[in-house]
Amino acid sequence: MVRRRQRGARSAARPNVAAYLRMLHEGLTRGLPASNDGTWFSRKDEGSLFLDAQEAAEHYRILDGLVRWAAPKEDISRQSVSAFLNDAIFEALDLRRASTLPFDGRLKKATRSLFVRLNTASRPFKCWVPVEGLKVDGPQARFGGARFLSFGPSQIRAIARARPLQSSTTWRHTVRFDEKDLVIGYTYAAVVVHARDANAARRLATLRVRAVIDTLNFFTDLVPYCHAWLYLRGETANTHQVVLAQADDGALGTSHEAISPLGLVSWKALRAERRLAPALRLLGQFNRTPPAVEDFASAILAGAQWAGRATVARRREESFLLYAIALESMVLPTHDSQGSGFRLRLRVAHLLGRTKEGRDKLLKDVNVLYAKRSQIAHAGSYDVTEEDLSRIRSITKGMLLRLASLKKLHNLTRQSFSEQMDVALVE
């Protein structure tokens, strides 16, 4: 199965590559340059080309334009676009004079070939992205289009069976090298992405898995006795720190503080939490089939992902600010910033408050917390207490679980949700 990109999805203008190639042809001279202030391009059997500073600047302007035009969804890598452009340059200039076509013929052929290559259809790539912090101890460890598995010999055999038609020594060496040094025994997230080259596929897969991890981390500290979280390899240090404090009488005390996950997140324990099940199912669906930007469902998903990042942030002020972003993403999903603090307080109280006393307390708490958020964002304040962090965490996570339970909201647009909230608060 392949997917063709929709032409209407392009927002950038198509660069005038033909004019650029004509400029290079008209300025073409033989011999070494007078200055090395520029860029060299070389191709085996096709010669070398030197671009002076002005030509090099134009080259990268054209390349940037092609990337914006051809890859609005980043399903083709910059490396591929650059290689296609360089192919067009060498074909049009014909430095070794191997073609019998005049320049205009070569120019037409080179530009046509370039844009045909840039218009190729995407194709599916199955990617495996290493994930740390998860214990795959239950069947069907799937979430949001990702399948978590302990990578082992069976996966290697499956990859080997799907070898390319023209396999090579390099391909066989890659499989053996990965099997020996990289993958056996590690937890991986397997995802399928659509891309036009392997570099783009790997990047899109990593972004997809990171979004899934951010969402799952929303739940990790809601599982009893779970002091762990998920992360991509290299994003968290598995270590602890020792801090010393000496009193004026010479007495010395030390503290040992873990700054890494304590153990692994149990998939079985996560799935066993019945109170989390509705939100887990809903967010898994939203990750698997992302909602449109204008849908309120996308605001719920964004809130979960920001809150997931807040859950694993180790600095209080950073975690606090991420929770605040998550709460605003869900409760203030439109771009109207006028009176945002007032609307935030009222909507939180309306959605979470069950009694008048509870709503009054929420109004006061959100007022204090929103002021604290403004101090962090605008005044560079670092004054966040454990109580502040605990309260905004409780409100934000409670809000998402509440919104996940209100099925009538899931099919609304962001605008219609805001309108409904305004009407409900007036009545």
Detailed description of the structure:
By secondary structure, the protein is of the alpha+beta class. The chain folds into three domains: 7-118, no CATH class; 123-232, no CATH class; 291-426. It has helices at 17-26, 53-70, 78-93, 103-118, 153-161, 169-181, 198-220, 267-272, 277-288, 296-312, 316-331, 340-352, 356-379, 386-405, 414-426, and strands spanning 38-43, 47-52, 123-132, 134-135, 142-143, 146-150, 187-195, 231-232, 240-246, 252-258, 265-266. The strands form four sheets. It has a five-stranded antiparallel β-sheet. The chain has a two-stranded antiparallel ribbon with strand order 1-2. The chain has a two-stranded parallel sheet with strand order 4-11. Helix 1 runs antiparallel to helix 4 (103-118), helix 10 runs antiparallel to helix 14 and helix 11 (316-331) runs parallel beside helix 14. It is globular and about 85 Å long.
Compact overview of the structure:
The protein is an alpha+beta fold. 53% of the residues lie in helices and 14% in strands. The chain has 15 helices and eleven strands.
